[in-house]
Each structure stands twice: as C-alpha cells, then as structure tokens.
Amino acid sequence: AFRRAHDLDPENVEALVGIAILEMGSLDSDVLDPREYRSRAENVIKMISMANLVDHTNAMVQNHLANHYFWKWTPVPGMVSVERGSCVVKGNMASSLE
C-alpha cells in the first residue's frame, strides 16, 4: 500500500516513511553482506531525509530522524567548554568533525 501511494504521489510523506520503516525492518546483518547492508541502510535514511525535505514539520519524520542520529551518535573523548555569550566551543583534545 505504501509503494502504491508513493507511485501515485512521490512526495507523500507517510508513504516515504512507511516504505523506509518496512525496509529497515527487513534488514538482517546476518543474511546480507556488509556492503549491501550498508547500502540498504543508507537508502532508508535517504528516504526519511527526503520525507523531511518535503515536510520538515512532520512529527513522525522528525522522530525517526532523531532516533537515527541518537543511535549513530558516538561520545567525544575529553572535555569541552563554552563561555557564556560566546559562539566558540573549546576542547582539550583534538577531534575530527567527520
């Protein structure tokens, strides 16, 4: 049903998210080789990101993007500090922005 809705309206946010969630649920790292798993997982995030471009106020889209970035997050070692009123963040260790 989501694919049919997407075929009729490629900017249907609910269809984009629905397809992405079903794709995500079908990912199995034990069955797929690592490259295909990563490729399909990236496709899921692209679909949710596309839905976000169409309607950035949609709560369902925002929730799924937040979940993705929460689980992707990795802690940064060291300490950071910001002075009140400053736009500069200072850290005590070198870190990559990638």
Can you give a write-up of this model?
With 98 residues, this protein is mainly α. The protein contains 4 helices and 2 strands; from the N terminus they run ααααββ. The protein has helices at 2-8, 13-26, 34-54, 59-72, and strands at residues 80-82, 89-91. Strand 1 and strand 2 (89-91) form a beta hairpin. The longest helix is centred in the middle third of the chain and has 21 residues, at 34-54. The protein is flat, with a radius of gyration of 18 Å. The model has no long low-confidence stretch (mean pLDDT 85).
What attributes does this structure have?
single chain; 98 residues; mainly alpha; two-stranded antiparallel ribbon; 4 helices; 2 strands; flat
Order of helices and strands: HHHHEE
Gross morphology is flat
The share of residues in helices is 55-70%
Q: Give the helix tally.
A: 4
Measured distance between first and last alpha carbons: 38 Å
- SSE-based structural type: mainly alpha
Low-confidence spans: none
Main beta-sheet annotation: 2 strands, antiparallel
Q: Describe the strand arrangement of the main beta sheet, using strand numbers.
A: 1-2
What Rg do the Cα atoms give? 18 Å
SSE map:
Elements: H1 2-8, H2 13-26, H3 34-54, H4 59-72, E1 80-82, E2 89-91
Antiparallel strand pairs: 1-2
Helix pairs in contact: 1-2, 2-3, 3-4
